[in-house]
Amino acid sequence: MSSTAGKLVTSRSELELDHPNIEDYLPSGSSINEPRGKLRLRDLLDISPTLTEAAGAIVDDSFTRCFKSNPPEPWNWNIYLFPLWCCGVVVRYCLLFPLRCITLAFGWIIFLSAFIPLHSLLKGQDRLRKKIERVLVEMICSFFVASWTGVVRYHGPRPSIRPKQVYVANHTSMIDFIVLEQMTAFAVIMQKHPGWVGLLQSTILESVGCIWFNRSEAKDREIVARKLRDHVLGTDNNPLLIFPEGTCVNNNYTVMFKKGAFELDCTVCPIAIKYNKIFVDAFWNSRKQSFTMHLLQLMTSWAVVCEVWYLEPQTIRPGETAIEFAERVRGMISHRAGLKKVPWDGYLKYSRPSSKHSERKQQSFAESILARLEDK
Known about the structure:
By secondary structure, the chain is of the alpha/beta class. Helix content is 48%, strand content 11%.
């Protein structure tokens, strides 16, 4: 009984941290002693950094948990289970992993032997070439999923090629794209990556109309916005896929959706993705792990279990802003996948506000407290 109560208290505290209310951390009106003199803004500014630091610690705890990978609880803790765990390690690393490497290598041989001569043999026949390229990209993605022993269940109608529509999904790892791509050859909006992933982006994935950007380049936003509008108007372009969170989240939460995908004046088709962590956590923390190591982690696990739901297409309602539209779609995805909505911008994972911005926030914070105290 006590353990159940403890779990309830823990879950309640997590929920409160997901939606922190700064008023909960301020003293009540009855506990505030009346000031002897007139309370000035300068007095509050002196303690504002301390107050904002305390509030920031509360916010940070709620924000950073969206990007933490929760390690599985160890089960090989006694003399009976440890031998079974050792046998599992031997099977996964010495049997399954080599077989999966062979499977993936075989897929690449088939893919490259068809993809490379395709461009020289079908010059001037763009329509046929694009159709074959779609099939080849779907095929190599299927080999990738097979190399993890992927168990993926798809719910809802398969995406089709239509103008003026865009697909949006929650984002856990770069494998989200692979899981979706094996069913439909999407053109995806993705961060430009270095190494072998960048090579694939600039060659193979470029053929299906994918669009790349760099977060550090401000001008890339204008270029990408223009390419997005041009792509959704094309009648023969591959379906456009966007991950509006802009970063990988640990599949327990959804952070704020960027409004760009919801300003295109087209139909938005939500996709909800949920990974079962029974065998492996599919979350990719790009700041701590390369994508190569992430793939190795998946290939040495028992299986990757995933559910994908293609939800009902949505259009913007009369009087609804792009931000409200994005939040409505985020709510649909969160509800279907069983994820918690949090009011944070995912880009804060990569950058923090400047000192001048923090000072302005401190002054605004102090002014709001002063106004509240004067009203009481």
